[in-house]
Amino acid sequence: MVVESSNDALSDKSSGANENSLRKKVGMLVRVTRRMINYCARVWLSSRKTDAFFFQELKLSFQKELENEQLPEFSRILMRLNVSVLSPRIHNVIIPRSTYKVLPNDTVEMRMRGGSVQLQGFYRAVYRTIREGELAANLSSFAINLKFKISTTFAGKLLLENVVCDAEVRVVDVQLVPKLHDLVDEGLRTAFDEHTSVSHIINRAFCICAIFLQYKDIMEHLLIDTTISYGISLMEDYFDFPLVGTPTISKMNTTSLHPLVVCSLSSDFHDVPYLQKLPEDKSKMVYIYITEFVLNSFLKKLDTFGNTALLLSAVPEFDGLLQLNCSENLECMGDFLQDAEPYQFDSGTMLLKMRSPAVATLRDGFMLLDLNLKVTVSYVQDGVDVNVLEFDWLLTVRINNAFLNEHLVSKVLFF
C-alpha cells in the first residue's frame, strides 16, 4: 500500500468542468503490478488446496460456468450408420496457461495454451437396428487468443467489452462404450471439431456485463467506495484503477479480504490518474495510493462505530504507575493521592477515550496522527468505582514507513 497525501485533492467545491468534477472524486488509486497479475495466473492454474482461497473460488466459479454449458446435439452418417450425439455436456475443465499483452486503447490480449475439456453424453447409431451407448470426448491442447477492452460504466463499475476470441482445439479424442468402429470414432472426432465452438463458449464465459468491486474490512461494517471515478490506465508493468475511495457504513456481515500490499508514505500526490511510477513498483504486488481527505474520512467513520476506549492499566508499565504502595525507585499514584487508604489495593484502572476523531496529516516518509484524548483514573472504594483523576491529553503520534511496513507484513493473511 502506498499512501500519498493531497490536501486539496477533494477540497475544490466549485462546479467547474466535468473533468475537474471527476478528478476531485479520486480519493484512492489501486495499482496492480505485473507481479500480482502473474501471481494470480499461477494460483489460477494451480490445483493445490493451499492456494489463495479467493482465487480458488474465482477459478471454481469460472469452471462451473463452463461445466454448465450444454452443447448442441448433432448427427453424422458414418459407415452407413446414422450416428447421433445426444446431450453432450462439458464435464471437466482444466484451465490453459496464459500470458497477456497490453495494447492501445485500454485493450488486453491474452494468449492461452494447453488445457483440456472433457465431454460426456450418449450416442445412438441406426442402421437396420438401433445401438445406443455412452460417449466420452476429450478436447485438449487449446490455442486461444482472447482480446478484450477494459472500460467503465457510467455508474463507475468495471466493464469488459469488445470481447473477441479466436480458438483452436489441436487434439480431439472420442471413445464410445460399447465401441462401434475406428472409422466411426474418426468421423466423430471431425464432427466434434466442427460443431463444438470453443470460441463461442469462451466468449460467453468472458462476456461479463459489469464487475462490482467492493472491499470489506475486518470490522465487517466499514466499506470503501470502489466506484471508478476516472479513466483506468493500463501499462505493461501495472494497471491503475482510480477510485472514489470514501468509506461508508454497512450492516452486512461480510468476509474480510486482505491483499498483499506494501506501504510507503509520500506527499507527491498531485495528478491521481497520471501518477509517476515508483522504481520499486515492479517488485511489489499491489499499491494503494490514498489522499489525506479519504484517510481522515475513514477515521471519522471509524469514530461513528461507538466510543473508542483503551484500557491502559492492562499495560504493565501503566499498571505499575497505578499502584498505591510505591517503591523507593519508582513513583506511583500512591505518592500523589492525599489519602490512598480508602481505595482497594490493585484496583486501579486507567481508561483512555477519544474525545473526537483522530486527524491524520501525511508528509514525505511519515504520517502525523493528532489524537484528542480523555484519560480517567479510578479505584474501587466500598465495591464502587470512584474516579480520582481526569484530564485531557492532546497527543501527536508520528508513524514512519519502516514502522508501518513492519506491522503490515506481519498482519498479511494468506487464504
Question: Mind explaining what this structure looks like?
Answer:
The protein is an alpha+beta fold. The protein has three domains: 2-33 and 213-292, no CATH class; 37-206, Super Roll (Bactericidal permeability-increasing protein, domain 1); 307-399, no CATH class. The protein contains eight helices and 20 strands. The strands form five sheets. Strands 3, 4, 5, 6, 7 and 8 form a six-stranded antiparallel β-sheet that branches. Strands 16, 17, 18, 19 and 20 form a five-stranded antiparallel β-sheet that branches. Helix 2 (34-45) packs across helix 3. The longest helix has 15 residues, at 53-67. The two termini are 19 Å apart.
Q: Please report the distance between the alpha carbons of the first and last residues.
A: 19 Å
In the predicted model, the low-confidence regions spanning at least 5 consecutive residues are 1-24, 47-52, 207-219, 252-277, 410-415
- Give the second-level CATH assignment, the architecture of the largest domain: Super Roll
> Do you know the CATH topology of the largest domain?
Bactericidal permeability-increasing protein, domain 1
CATH class category of the largest domain: Alpha Beta
What's the helix-strand series? EHEHHEEEEEEHHEEEEEEEHEHEEEEH
Number of E-state strands: 20
CATH superfamily of the largest domain: Bactericidal permeability-increasing protein, domain 1
Strand content: 35-45%
Largest sheet: 6 strands, antiparallel
Total domains, how many?
3
GO molecular function: lipid binding
InterPro entries: Bactericidal_perm-incr_a/b_dom (IPR017943), BPI/LBP/Plunc (IPR032942)
Organism: Gongylonema pulchrum
Protein name: BPI2 domain-containing protein
